[in-house]
Amino acid sequence: MIHFKKDVCRDFNNATQYEWVESNGIGGYASSTIIGANTRRYHGLLVAATQPPAARVMLLAKVEETIAIDGVKYDLSCNQYPNAIFPEGNMYLKEFRLTPFPKFIYEVKGVTVEKSVMMVHGSNTTILSYNIYAGSEEVLLSVRPLVNFRDYHGLTLYEEGLRCDCDVYEGAIRLTPRSHFPPLFLYHNAASFNESKYYYKNMEYQEEAYRGFDCHEMLYNPGYFVYNVDDGDNCVFVASTESYEEIDTVELMQKEISRRSKLLRDVSFGNNALDPLVIAADSFVCDGPRKGLRVIAAGYHWFSVWGRDALISLTGLTLSTKRFDTARSLLSTIASYASEGMLPNRFSEDRNEPEYNSVDAALWFFYAVHKYLQYTGDIAFVERELLTALTKIMHHYTAGTRFGIREDADGLITFSNGDIPITWMDVRIGDAPLIRREGKVVEVNALWYNALRVMADVAGRLGMGKEEDAYLKRAEKTKKSFQKVFWFEEGGYLYDYVDGKTRDSSMRPNQVFAVSLPYGVLTKAMEKQVLAKIDEELLTPYGLRTLSPKDPRYHGTYRGAVEARDSAYHQGTVWAWLIGPYVDAYLKVNGSSKETADACAKVLAPLIDHTRQAGLGSVSEIFDGNPPFHPRGCISQAFSVGEVMRACFETQIGIEAERKKDESPQITKRF
């Protein structure tokens, strides 16, 4: 169980390094630190997805709680202001627990307050439940909501942005902002609501300051709720965009506990240390913009839906966790957005509209289909729902599509993207890409070779012998050209890209896919040399560096203002999701055995331990390239979680072993 005792909770600087996220299955979330002090503009108790899974808005930033014992008041909340921490309620915090929901246990003068935070699945609704054990003391609980009405990327600096109308009902109030944001309903079982308009100014967010952004904002308090407490009472406070006639919080919380328990029962990891990742995997799966569609949110707090990320993470998030119906829904959704042979790189946050600016997203689709067939053998679904999209992608990548993407005469994919970066290394400084990668790119063509082989496999399964032979013939041509074009003999590894006479010999992790993908495109000798170079220069305990430390352009820390961080993003920063391909490459070179499985377990162990750091129960997006490899970026990233989950499952249990277990009661190895 992930939990922290008072020695951590009462140390502000230490405690604020640990964060939690609760999601609602439609793109909304609640999040803060383990002491309830918000350190980011993205922290809030109700960040609602107003056009699921997008258009996220901050509505309830936090609550201020005060407990009065025999007339003496004690503040339980905690905030940071310029040069001050006030109040310091974390000094009463005895323990924080993550499971089944974030729980804060306070002890004040013999009175225990247990506060839980939960989001209702499928609804922009957050429940705060306070169980109070008061003994014979006379106790009152006051809860002050601090509200906001803004886009979740922004900050509120002036009172005008917070003005709203307040309607008071029995058991509820409604705050209607004088803007385009939805009303906020606050439900309660308090004895009274006392209206007293107040502005909290200069709330300071230390993580925003660290990231080089504005870090102060204003919040609005419309009043406070007062609960008369008897021993064992349950005090309820609910924030929602929905109008409830009545709300049974006990039933809703029990329903969510049951839902999460089923998620854990359905998987077969046999390792409780991975349980938090099973729940984290679920947090990314959301309802799509159209009824019946499912999508994957790329990361919390600030990433929306990204096509590439979804396809990379799909195996670990859904197939390794036996959520095959979810996998089918996700694949069908992605296929439905195919356009001119391309799949969306991302969906706009405000309108959920697809943006087609990725050369590799469509090629990752073939990988996801291959993994789906590997886990399920369900060729009928592929034929019925996905084959048309697969065929159209093949056609357009062969004949040509946006950004000059086309198959060259040598069987390799080439493109010319100008100032729009369309590989996964896509950061821009100003209007120009930080890393200009075009022409023939190594991972794009490793994926292309695999796409041809996947199409051959699909054709063979469907009895289309002629088509199968044609794809195999094309794949063989691509393989020969790949080795000729990308092999850097002097270095003993692969060029990152080749564009005319330009041969970029930057030592980057993109070459790992030439080894790791299901269909190897190199000779065994080449694979061994590539892995050795990756081991020597790129491998860290938390993933692969994006550039060798031997390169003069290397940035070992991801810190500072926006431009400084962007300059490091793909120039040395470690990406956690690359640990999955690395493990695959390691097994390709060294074979599958108990010894190699144990070696992979050791490689994955630091990332499993990392679930007790930063974004609790999850895996961060990136890490510094230099020791001690501080976690950076999003605190909970879909393909980081997905690839750790997939690698653990496939190396320690195995797809075939799991299939046999489902067919018979025999015992299989557990991680």
**The first-level CATH class name of the largest domain:** Mainly Alpha
Structurally, the number of domains stands at 2
| Overall pLDDT score | 95
Largest sheet: 9 strands, antiparallel
Q: Outline, from the CA principal axes?
A: elongated
Strand content: 25-35%
Number of continuous helical runs: 18
Distance between the termini: 18 Å
3D architecture notes:
It contains 18 helices and 39 strands. With 671 residues, it is α+β, with helices and mostly antiparallel strands. The protein folds into 2 domains: 3-258, Distorted Sandwich (Beta-galactosidase, Chain A, domain 5), CATH 2.70.98; 267-663, Glycosyltransferase (Alpha/alpha barrel). It has a 9-stranded antiparallel β-sheet with strand order 1-9-10-11-12-19-16-15-14. Strands 2, 3, 4, 5, 6, 13, 17 and 18 form an 8-stranded antiparallel β-sheet that branches. A 5-stranded antiparallel β-sheet has the order 34-35-36-37-38. A hairpin with a 5-residue loop joins strand 25 and strand 26. The longest helix has 22 residues, at 465-486. The radius of gyration is 26 Å and the shape is elongated. Residues 664-671 have low confidence and may be disordered.
